[in-house]
Amino acid sequence: MIPNAIELIDNLRALPDETEYVEFKRNFSEAEKEAEDISALANSAAYHGVSAAFKIWGIDDATHEVTGTTFKPRSKKKGNQSLEMWLRQHLSDNANFEFAEATYDQKPLVILKVWPAVQSPVAFNHHAYIRTDSSTQPLKTGSAREAELWRRIQNKSFETQLAKEQLPLDEAVDLLDYPRYFDLLDTPLPPDAETVAHYLEKDEILIQQEDGRWGVTNLGALLFAKDLSSFPTVRRKGLRIARYNGKNRAAERSERSFSAGYALSLDDAFLYLEGLTATGDNLNGLKSEPRSLYPAVSLRETIVNALIHQDLGISGAGPMVEVFVDRIEVTSPGELLVETERIVNDPPRSRNETLSALMRRFRYCEEAGSGWDKIVLGSEALHTPAPRI
């Protein structure tokens, strides 16, 4: 669902020509061509610093006349797969896009929204593309243009890109549990929306756009979304906790997903996990009280670090906690920033610096590189086996 679709279409049609990040087509061509275009649009959006690129089927590319289209993205197949599944399998993991259908003057249109490349250029079958004027071309390896694209991508973080845009202020703040922001900072809740927006914009949770409307950043959605599924860029980033009645993944399983932003759901997730691992063998006088099998500080540090240091540029994957009868495994997308054998002595590194800084101010972490020490000391205090990375 793309908000203000008709207004968006009018704005794009008003352009004198197609651009490197806007393309019009009457009808669908072939899956391979569309995959190349998604790669090119994502990379061009990153290159030109725009919040998104668009391709619209049902508009003539020369006259911008609305013609309508026969393309139906939900029913389109490539072999035995749905088109979208095929595209996601053949595009690199950092490709982030969404199809939406709209009706304009009673004519069907299809809008493809493509978010800018993050971490690295978006590639199709390991080859990256980019647009020049209105045409899609391979991005030449070693070219000055490729070097400049890499520089611009690395200077633009996923956190500060927009998860939703072109919103009135009241709609933007309504998507977020913004009172929680002020609670975590021990700051009184402002009396009006404008002052709320001032604080949230200062911390890059909201961004006011050129036309006066507002956008919610990926950072704002990740931390304060009432429902992460409202934001396509982060809908798969919610924390999931699975419990197995055995020692492997073939055992009977139950799962709970935490669909709110991390600042809203982290405490609940931690309490839920403690409940899954509690026993009744801790004696206090004559009473048997619950005791966790795992040190609370180790669980907390591991989960918070998994959230903060995940590779947010990998779409379709999020942090996961799996509870087995003999262990807990915590995973998140991406590779470690520090070699495993140097995890104790190397200086701390943060993949998502804006997210890390806010979580430190919320007192969920310290950004001091002490997390692994706390995990190990917590395990030693309960005489549990040493954790493994």
Describe the structure.
The chain has 389 residues and is α+β, with helices and mostly antiparallel strands. 32% of the residues lie in helices and 22% in strands. It contains 12 helices and 18 strands. The strands form 6 sheets. A 4-stranded mixed sheet has the order 1-2-6-5. A 4-stranded mixed sheet has the order 14-13-17-18, with helices on one face. A 3-stranded antiparallel sheet has the order 7-8-9. Strand 5 and strand 6 form a beta hairpin. Helix 2 packs across helix 3, helix 2 crosses helix 4 and helix 9 packs antiparallel against helix 10. The longest helix is centred in the N-terminal third of the chain and has 18 residues. It is globular, with a radius of gyration of 23 Å. The two termini are 40 Å apart.
Q: Secondary-structure element sequence?
A: HEHEEEHEEEEEHEHHHEEHEEHEEHEEHH
The amount of helix comes to 25-40%
Strand content: 15-25%
Structural class: alpha+beta
Radius of gyration: 23 Å
Kindly report the average pLDDT value. 88
List keywords for this structure.
single chain; alpha+beta; four-stranded mixed β-sheet
List the helices and strands and how they pair.
Elements: H1 5-13, E1 22-25, H2 31-48, E2 53-57, E3 77-78, E4 81-82, H3 83-90, E5 97-104, E6 107-114, E7 123-124, E8 127-132, E9 135-138, H4 144-154, E10 162-167, H5 169-174, H6 178-184, H7 193-202, E11 206-208, E12 214-217, H8 218-224, E13 239-244, E14 253-258, H9 262-276, E15 278-284, E16 287-292, H10 296-308, E17 320-323, E18 328-331, H11 353-361, H12 371-381
Parallel strand pairs: 1-2, 13-17
Antiparallel strand pairs: 2-6, 3-4, 5-6, 7-8, 8-9, 10-12, 11-12, 13-14, 15-16, 17-18
Helix pairs in contact: 2-3, 2-4, 9-10, 10-12
